[in-house]
Amino acid sequence: MKLSTYEPDALQPGARSLSYGVFCWLNRHITVLRALGALLRRWPSVGGLFGMVARASAVKDVLTRTRSFSNTAHAANMVSGDYLIGMDPGPTYSADRDLVHARLAALDVPADSDAEAQRRIKDLSKPGAAEFDLIDDYLMWVVFHAMRPLFGDAIGAVVAGSATNAAQGDVDEGLQRQYMLEIRYVAGQLLAGNLATLDLRRRAESCGDALQARIDRVTGPIGAAWGVKSSSEDIERNAVGLAWISHPVTVQSGALVMQELLGRQKVYEQLRSRARALGESRVWTDPDFRKAVRNHVLELMRFRPIFPLLARDVPRDTEMETGARSNAGCPGGGKVSLLSIAALFDPSAVPQSGRFCPNRDWGSEDALRYLMFGYGYRQCPARDYAVDILTSALIGLLTLPRLQLARGEGKAIAYDGPLMLCMRMRIT
Hints:
- By secondary structure, the chain is an alpha+beta fold.
- It is 54% helix and 9% strand.
- The protein is globular and about 60 Å long.
- 46% of the residues are buried.
């Protein structure tokens, strides 16, 4: 088996641009990746030659062997410093994970996400509000307000980048928008990966430096709000990580969910019809409807996951299951690639995998349903919170009149590499 051990920084500018362009194109044309995944599921030994796995059983095997296949593959793209997603298991990882669980327990979801979604929908329903940007005018605010408790009473100081201006940071939407744009580009580098062009990487690094400086100035208020006595270094590492990975990734996932839903007009109209039948108040309180919307969110994410491809470092010589008759050898120092999008459509694990079926009975493979959040011990600890926030956001959008992409002047969806910058919607 030949594993990729190249260094992206050694690529010529033309080769880098071409590789990055192909990568971005594949991310936007997810059906092509699904087709490629189907081929590699059919002939897993071919994927094994290039260090790629596509079958659900093989992907799960790699993700659960954390000592053999390391998350440090993310480290080069974490421009604001080390964090859980790029760490190997150990004392620091365990301590940071415990802190993250404690901060997530402070969230009041879906109450906060419902409240902000309702407030934003009320604004979008005013006369004359015929168009809006799904990301800048809606999603990023719903997610921001749902995740404010992550920083407790220090959120104003974090937004303002100063303890003395904390009160202003609590209420000034201009400062809040600036903060969200800063963390967007830090997360964008993780989405872009090693093939990102150097100018995009420099921008991400600048934003990462700014985020670190912002948090460094307010580690005192953050530590007090968290009630921890950790070193300022530990507080800064976790505060920086919580800032850049929680908000932008959830926002991007929400945009992808809506993009997929609008491509399924029959499904969209069925949900809207149910929302209208419930009425303005019951649509937020009916448990059966919320469960149905949540199931739709998960199924839409299956068809358009934010991370259709994953990479893992191979720290030492080993081998991995591919689904072929014999395992593939993995020399130390290389990387392996996991087609999570292919695993989510593996018919041997997912009943009627090609069908859009929100109410599918996953049986013993229920954990696979959440593969877009990882698998096993290393699964994202914010999984359920993120799905609940996106459920609130989608319920809000279903209460509006019919939505469609605003395909008038300019493109309805604008990208910056794999990052969706805006998604212009029209209320019809």
